[in-house]
């Protein structure tokens, strides 16, 4: 009895059975998982750096060397007037004498300080949003009033934090690049193995007139789908772990930054999955073209 | 008998030469020549049998015709183009004009009979909806319509051979090359396949068949080429070659 074809869509020309797809997808998923953590860490560090630098950039400390404790209040009053003129939108909060003394305890211990010790007057400056701190203008204005003052805009700390954060970010991105490199190597290796295993199929395809591009497309599609599957699995697991870490993060200050997630990270993760699949597909395409050309030269 | 160095498959006035060999030689590495000084012309629309004892070089000669091998010397023109200067794209485009039936069938194991037959059309970028009915009809013609969804490894040798033939002819090639195409089928099916080749030839396909089957050759009014020890002898319907 006459039949009709069972499938309305064409069967895949490459056999999935000899592709070792499952183990490859697991390897790619692990790589995508590590890439996800590296990417989220890098984004988190960058956010933290911006927050720290933003906070430091909006504050400064003015230190005025008082001539003697008797003139302390008068010099403070003069300094505040001068500062309000130079930074009219900023808030100035002078530290009390007791607070100034407390700041010395880490160095001098709990000693009773002599009353005539000329402690400097410290004024904390908080800038309004968008307001730019002018250290030179402040120093000059205070100097004109005969005050010996030093304005610290925290740039030394800010720069150090920035450099440290940039270092961490660069390390995370280097790790990401390494993982992508490993993805290329895995995909290249898998494509070589697949080309070898499917030699008979390729021989038939070449015989019926398939161009290199046609054959390469088959391997590109296979590797791309494999990369996509591995990428999605790895990113989901990576995201779950990162979410768990961010939920139980330490609120106290620590040396290393905690992972924090942001809605925009989702976009980066989508780009990561697509990029991962593209890298796998690209490696497969290049490998296929290269091997087909080499086989042709041998023939 | 024609000169052994210049045998000509068809001496009728050809529209064009589909295959032309001039002093073609083939050797593997530094070994002896397997084919020597082969001169051959297959005119457009000709039907040719290639005969000769086992190991004489029939399959090798056919491999040169479908570009599975490259000659060590001499000139091979396919469709009036020198194959040695063809680009990869031209080479593959030329292959798409050639249908090949091989002794080992080369069906793809993980594809059904239908998909195996559809292969040349998929490679040519044809739309599945446009060719489905053609394949069903062709499989009916070769007696495989009831096995179109079967996998090759479940087919008998004869069925595999018919599937391979269907794959070779589905794209209506300009040149059909068959290496012992009736070797595994019963005489009735063999005659049916020969009718298929003859019908294709009538529609303009140039056909060359390598065979030992004398009865097959006698059934057809066709040109005959004989190859012995890598050298081509020729004659037209020459009983002496059989």
Architecture blueprint of SSEs:
The complex is a heterodimer of chains A (299) and B (242).
Chain A: H1 21-57, E1 59-65, H2 72-86, E2 91-94, H3 97-108, E3 121-126, H4 135-144, E4 148-152, H5 155-197, H6 199-207, H7 212-247, H8 265-298
Antiparallel strand pairs in A: 1-3, 1-4, 2-3
Chain B: E1 17-27, E2 33-43, E3 47-51, H1 58-65, E4 73-78, E5 81-82, H2 88-95, E6 98-101, H3 113-123, H4 128-141, H5 157-169, E7 175-179, H6 187-202, E8 206-210, H7 214-219, E9 223-228, E10 231-236
Parallel strand pairs in B: 3-8, 3-9, 6-7, 7-8
Antiparallel strand pairs in B: 1-2, 1-4, 4-5, 9-10
Helix pairs in contact in B: 3-4, 3-5
Written account of the structure:
The complex is a heterodimer of chains A (299) and B (242). With 299 residues, chain A is an alpha+beta fold. Helices cover 66% and strands 7% of the residues of chain A. The two termini of chain A are 44 Å apart. Chain A contains 8 helices and 4 strands. Chain B is of the alpha/beta class. Chain B has 2 domains: 151 residues, Rossmann fold, CATH 3.40.50; 69 residues, no CATH class. Chain B is globular and about 45 Å long. At the A-B interface, α6 of A face α2, α3 and α4 of B.
What key attributes describe this structure?
heterodimer; A: 299 residues; alpha+beta; 8 helices; 4 strands; B: alpha/beta; Rossmann fold
Q: Greatest chain-chain interface?
A: A-B, 28 and 38 residues
What is the mean pLDDT of chain B? 86
The tally of helices of chain A reads 8
Ends apart, CA distance between termini of chain B: 14 Å
Describe, in short, the structure shown:
The complex is a heterodimer of chains A (299) and B (242). Chain A has 299 residues and is α+β, with helices and mostly antiparallel strands. Chain A has helices at 21-57, 72-86, 97-108, 135-144, 155-197, 199-207, 212-247, 265-298; strands at residues 59-65, 91-94, 121-126, 148-152.
């Amino acid at each position: 009895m006459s039949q009709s074809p069972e499938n309305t869509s064409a069967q895949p020309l490459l056999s999935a059975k000899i592709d070792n797809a499952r183990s490859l997808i697991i390897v790619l998923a692990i790589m995508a998982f590590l890439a996800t953590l590296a990417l989220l860490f890098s984004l988190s560090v960058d956010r933290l750096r911006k927050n720290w630098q933003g906070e430091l950039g909006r504050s400064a400390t003015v230190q005025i060397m008082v001539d003697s404790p008797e003139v302390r209040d008068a010099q403070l009053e003069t300094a505040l007037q001068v500062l309000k003129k130079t930074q009219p939108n900023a808030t100035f909060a002078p530290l009390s004498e007791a607070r100034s003394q407390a700041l010395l305890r880490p160095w001098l211990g709990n000693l009773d300080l002599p009353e005539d010790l000329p402690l400097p007057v410290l004024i904390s400056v908080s800038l309004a949003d968008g307001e730019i701190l002018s250290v030179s203008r402040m120093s000059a204005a205070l100097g004109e009033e005969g005050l010996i003052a030093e304005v610290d805009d925290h740039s030394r700390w800010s720069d150090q934090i920035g450099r440290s954060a940039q270092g961490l970010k660069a390390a995370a991105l280097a790790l990401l690049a390494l993982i992508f490199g490993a993805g290329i190597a895995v995909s290249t290796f898998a494509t070589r193995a697949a080309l070898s295993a499917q030699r008979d199929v390729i021989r038939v395809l070449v015989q019926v007139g398939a161009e290199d591009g046609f054959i390469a497309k088959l391997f590109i599609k296979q590797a791309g789908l494999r990369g996509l599957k591995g990428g999605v699995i790895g990113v989901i697991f990576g995201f779950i772990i990162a979410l768990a870490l961010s939920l139980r993060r330490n609120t106290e200050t620590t040396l290393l930054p905690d992972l924090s997630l942001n809605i925009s990270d989702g976009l980066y993760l989508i780009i990561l999955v697509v990029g991962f699949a593209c890298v796998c597909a690209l490696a497969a395409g290049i490998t296929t073209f290269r091997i087909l050309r080499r086989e042709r030269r041998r023939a | 008998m024609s000169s052994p160095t210049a045998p000509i498959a068809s001496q009728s006035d050809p529209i064009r030469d589909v295959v032309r060999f001039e002093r073609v030689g083939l050797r593997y590495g530094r070994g002896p020549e397997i084919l020597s000084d082969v001169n051959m012309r297959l005119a457009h629309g000709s039907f040719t049998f290639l005969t000769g004892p086992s190991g004489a070089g029939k399959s090798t000669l056919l491999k040169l015709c479908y570009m599975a091998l490259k000659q060590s010397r001499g000139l091979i023109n396919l469709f009036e183009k020198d194959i040695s200067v063809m680009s990869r794209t031209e080479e593959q485009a030329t292959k798409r004009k050639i249908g090949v039936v091989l002794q080992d069938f080369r069906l793809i194991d993980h594809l059904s009979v239908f998909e195996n037959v559809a292969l040349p059309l998929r490679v040519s970028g044809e739309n599945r909806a446009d060719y489905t009915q053609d394949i069903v009809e062709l499989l009916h013609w070769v007696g495989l319509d009831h096995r179109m969804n079967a996998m090759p490894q479940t087919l008998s040798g004869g069925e595999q051979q018919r599937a391979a033939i269907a794959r070779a002819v589905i794209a209506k090639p300009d040149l059909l090359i068959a290496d012992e195409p009736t070797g595994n089928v019963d005489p009735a099916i063999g005659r049916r396949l020969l009718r298929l080749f003859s019908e294709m030839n009538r529609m303009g396909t140039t056909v060359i068949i390598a065979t030992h089957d004398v009865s097959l050759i006698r059934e057809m009014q066709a040109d005959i080429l004989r190859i012995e020890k890598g050298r081509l002898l020729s004659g037209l319907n020459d009983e002496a070659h059989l």
